[in-house]
Amino acid sequence: xxxxLELLQGMAKKHGVNFELVAKIFEIERGxxxxxxxxxxxxxxxxxxxxxxxxxxxx
Amino acid sequence: MIIDRAVIENxxxxxxxxxxxxxxxxxxxxxxxxxHGGAGKSTVGQAIRWxxxxxxxxxxxxxxxxxxxxxxxxxxxxxxxxxxxxKEGPPAENHISVQLVVTxxxxxxxxxxxxxxxFGEYALEREASVGKIxxxxxxxxxxxxxxxxxxxxxxxxxxxxxxxxxxPASMSSFFMFHGDRIxxxxxxxxxxxxxxxxxxxxDVQAMENAANDLQQIMTRFSRNVTTASxxxxxxxxxxxxxxKIEGQITKLQGQIGEKESLLKEKTERITELEREHRDLxxxxxxxxxxxxxxxxxxxxxxxxxxxxxxxxxxxxxxxREALYHTLYSRALKVKExxxxxxxxxxxxxxxxxxxxxxxKLKPGQKCSVCGQPFPEEMxxxxxxxxxxxxxxxxxxxxxxxxxKPEFQMLxxxxxxxxxxxxxxxxxxxxxxxxxxxxxxxxxxxxELGKKLGDYTKPAVRxxxxxxxxxxxxxxxxxxxxxxxxxxxKKAIDQYTDVQKERSRELAKLGDQASRKAKERFDLxxxxxxxxxxxxxxxAFEKRDEIxxxxxxxxxxxxxxxxxxxxxxxVEVDEEFQVRAINKDGNVLEWDxxxxxxxxxxxxxxxxxxxxxxxxxxxxxxxxxFGKLDPNHxxxxxxxxxxxxxxxxxxxxxxxxxxxxxxxxxxxxxxVARYIFLFNDESTGNATRINTISSxxxxxxxxxxxxxxxxxxxxxx
Lengths: 59, 716
Prior knowledge:
A: 3 helices, B: five-stranded antiparallel β-sheet
């Protein structure tokens, strides 16, 4: 059976996105979910920060 | 994760420091915790859950699943009063703690190391204390949870670490069970509340959230892209259009919210009706029981009447005075006296006959044979003999007891009816017994009658019909609402696509200065596609995996394989609702199945979900063998070792005794150790632990005790 990370890796490759960033965002979302639903805004701010840092680092 | 060890100190019924080894030993992955009721078995599960999550053990899908223990809960439930559980007054100990040694699963090793954590044993401790003088719930001090890594480094945010690298609390609800709850899972896996939990366990929910968040982030980024003046008009148009679309989406989301709240109401009403339907089935069962008891009582009343009739017949046959047992005994005595009198008369008569013979010898009389007179001394002897015989006669006559006339009548009566067995005492006892049986049944019938209230068979049938009709109506409405919601969602998707297109166009209009914003937008766009596509694939794969694995194990465990569809006995739909499929390909109605079959479906589902979750979670099964019938137990024991890397099986002495009857089962090869829990009377019935690693002599001794206990309970 295929694992979720393998699926995520495959999709990241298909869409040309670095898997490290994908994994980071997945971790943020999962963390928020496991600790109980947090406000969407807080979650999104963390994701935006991760994307911003990534583009900053790779620009 | 694996729970290697638990050290329970003064928690609940445990007194002092108690170390429980729980780790698997090679292929032996089962730890058996055995104890009688009140020995502290469930306290072990409670202690583990308290230490890890500080959350209560409750049903899957129920909101209280997330309920945290308050200071009052901790004080009342975990601290122990001098002789038992806390009620009031100061506790026996001022400090309680539960320490766990936990090893995260291999699958998180990389993630741990990426965050510079060591892979290995983590020591966790949760404690609580109260003051020595005044002790009340408000005095409970709950220090922060302590978690140390293999390098003795303290983890700063242990709760988050447990959720991320051990086992999330929501997921633990599926694997740490109390027996009663396992059966109830069938109710939930067919209903909606558990769907969200399954999605969380499988990480589908996290990916869905990621896709939705990224969608909104894209819109936000697109606005940050500044445009060149020549494209300003188009930018404004696009911005306006995006705003309008956002408005439409918000409106649609509002409508979805309304419909979902209606749907929730309907679902709740359906759940209530299902419960009522189950209650009605229960009532129908009770009505059957009621009828059976009434029939039994009629039989008993018949028996009782027969005995009373017999007793009345006896009263008619015997004269009134003979009814009293004392008189009856007296009559028997009189009869005996009469017999003795007769004997004495007979004796006197015999003596008289002898006397008449002796008296024939008169003084000077000659012998008829020799013609000589009898010697003088012989005559003296005869005289003495006559005197003696007269004395004998007088003695016998004196021995005759004069009987009063009424006794003589009594005696005649008794003699007249001596062939009839007169046993009023025995009859009375029999009568008492029948009366008591009738009274017990009457009590049961009254109690049942109270429970049944106004229910009668037709009333139950009518109400059940009403409930079914209402359930069907609500289900249709539910289906309609779901379709409406799906329609709105589809519309949102369409709007979202347009919004995305416009956002892309807006982003393209960006000049050099907004290159960074555009870059972020593009990245968010791609990330959104990654998560959206993965969610679809993942949900499809996991649904298929759960259905296959649950179905496979279900067919191995069930004793009624003919009930199920041979190729696909279990189905998981797009909403992650799990259903068993009958041989004709229709949904199997679980309410009609036995609680043993329900438990088997739940266990199969736990297995399927655990396999699909890609997590190594310990399975804690607390006193649930009582829910299984013997055939299911045999099959289940064979498969249990393959359920997971660590299985903690909590059983009562009776359940353990039933397991011991299955000595040839391969299950025993997988038992790493047996932890026996006893109440130690010398320490106020505190829990005492005895851990052994094999079925040695002490277990045999225990087996003897168990068998004795079993016999005793059967006798009782």
